[in-house]
Design goal:
alpha/beta, 5-stranded mixed sheet, two-stranded antiparallel sheet, 16 helices, 7 strands, 51% helix
């Protein structure tokens, strides 16, 4: 009996150990599965960051780009061989070429007439008689050069009473500065629109024999910022008077004094563009700088705004929506991007279906762009609403079939969590399908960031916001930004502040 009791205890012990081993095995399997999902998520994030740093901004597949580059290289290498083959082939019917566009009529013309070397007919010695002419035009460049404008104010005296008169001093954009309006406009445009840092500009000016220090150019931009402040305030009022605005932000590195490092600040943009729904108000973009990305900044910008805000899912906007004055509108481009990042690395039936469905929505939007809001809403209700409803049901079904911690589940979860904001465009023809208006406005900041690397201070960030506002709005209204800025600098110093709206881009004729 004692032996049987011992064997029973041994069996129970072995069973307990076996159960413990099974539990440990299941735990290790679960941990391995979780690690695999985490590795997959981090790998996807790494690929996304690589594309952001080194890839093209457009969503063309990298392998297609590489293939095109190889084909182009092959074309250059084998150009001679192809020409020989073409020459050996029988002549084919020439294909019609697209006619070359004529050179712009507004450009000044310089005429150079070319006559034969012989002054008279070499056969008989007779004089030449003009029968007609052949004219061809060549686009050339007159080298940019500096010049000095001398303002001479003569002092005049009356020959009878000895009264002395003199014309008033000429107004300058910056007091006690020798910088002219066109030079200041060129410096600002080159830095913020052509992304040419100030130190490179000083090098270029030095090649022309003009010594201008980087600090001098920085002081001039600071003075322009102060001079333009009333105009940017008027621009802000125009933007926030809209029924719907787009907003987004982007990081900008700012030098941290004393550390030798940079910290990350933000540039925010608020865009008014009613042209897609046949609005008559002028488009405009207002930029604002903040030293960080705390939610208090957009909440301060939008504290007096009432209307529709089209933005991404940044939590800093939630306090704005909670007050009920601002209606949230989502961005399908952001929702698509989550699936695209997965599709780029590992295409699946889910990512393919979502991207094809969203593409259908964009084809509908292309058909209704520029139509009034009531027409856009009616077409969306008839064509887009069924597609969106079917996608919603399909996503909910697919969510139950994918691992909860997978990147696909994250992408589906983002879309479902934002569904009310994403579908708001179906009910209001003023709302766009995406927030690309704001993203386009920030594109110049992203390109510039790669060139100037960082801003020198918070003051530099505020100056950048001013210049991006004026130059970006000029572009939206079809003006030459440098010519517009020159126009402003010639007038704004003496322009009445209560009539500053007259200098906004849509009120200016250049």
């Amino acid at each position: 009996m004692a032996s049987m009791g011992g064997e029973s205890a041994l069996v129970q012990s072995l069973l307990a150990e076996l159960e413990t081993t099974r539990q440990e095995r299941d735990a290790l399997r679960q941990e391995k599965r979780g690690d695999k999902l985490e590795i997959e998520r981090l790998t996807l994030l790494l690929e996304k960051l690589k594309r952001m740093l080194f890839g093209r901004k457009s969503e063309k597949l990298l392998r297609q780009i590489e293939q095109l580059e190889l084909e182009l290289e092959e074309a250059y290498i084998n150009e001679g061989e192809r020409q020989e083959k073409i020459a050996a082939q029988p002549a084919a019917t020439p294909t019609a070429r697209t006619p070359r566009q004529p050179l712009p009529e507004h450009l000044p013309r310089q005429t150079q007439e070319h006559l034969p070397a012989a002054k008279q007919c070499p056969d008989c010695g007779g004089a030449w008689k003009r029968l007609g002419e052949d004219v061809s035009e060549v686009l050339d460049l007159v080298r940019v050069r500096f010049h000095v404008v001398r303002h001479v104010r003569a002092r005049l005296a009356c020959s009878c009473c000895d009264r002395i008169v003199q014309a008033p001093a000429v107004s300058r954009p910056i007091a006690r500065s020798y910088a002219g309006p066109a030079l200041l406009a060129h410096i600002a445009t080159a830095k913020y629109l052509d992304h040419l840092p100030l130190y490179r500009q000083t090098q270029a000016y030095g090649r022309e024999g003009i010594s201008l220090s980087e600090s001098t150019l920085g002081d001039w931009i600071g003075a322009m910022h102060e001079l333009m402040r009333p105009l940017t305030d008027a621009l802000k009022r125009h933007v926030f008077a809209a029924e719907k605005i787009h907003t987004d932000d982007t990081p900008v590195p700012v030098l941290a004094p004393g550390t030798g490092k940079t910290r990350q600040a933000r540039l925010w943009t608020y865009v008014r563009d009613d042209r897609p729904h046949a609005g008559e108000a002028a488009p405009a973009a207002w930029y604002c700088y903040s030293p960080d990305r705390k939610g208090i900044h957009p909440q301060t910008h939008l504290k007096d705004y009432n209307g529709i805000l089209q933005a991404d899912a940044y939590a800093g906007y939630n306090a704005v929506y909670e007050k009920g004055r601002v209606l949230e509108a989502g961005c399908w481009a952001h929702a698509r991007r989550h699936f695209y990042d997965i599709h780029e690395k590992r295409p699946s039936a889910i990512t393919t279906h979502v991207m094809e469905t969203i593409a259908q929505l964009y084809r509908i939007e292309a058909d209704i762009r520029g139509k009034p809001p009531h027409e856009r809403r009616a077409i969306r209700q008839a064509r887009a609403a069924p597609i969106v409803a079917a996608l919603h049901d399909w996503l909910k079904t697919q969510l139950a079939t994918v691992p909860k911690k997978s990147v696909t589940a994250d992408a589906i979860g983002y879309a479902l969590n934002q569904w009310q904001a994403l579908t708001r465009f179906l009910e209001d023809g003023r709302i766009e399908v995406d927030n690309n208006a704001a993203e386009r406005a920030l594109r110049a900041v992203g390109v510039g960031r790669k060139n100037f690397l960082f801003l020198g201070s918070d003051a530099g960030g505020e100056r950048a916001a001013t210049m991006y506002s004026l130059l970006g709005t000029a572009k939206l209204n079809g003006l030459n930004p440098e010519a517009y800025l020159t126009h402003l600098l010639e007038r704004i110093a003496e322009h009445p502040v209560n009539r500053v709206d007259e200098l906004l881009p849509w009120n200016v004729t250049l």
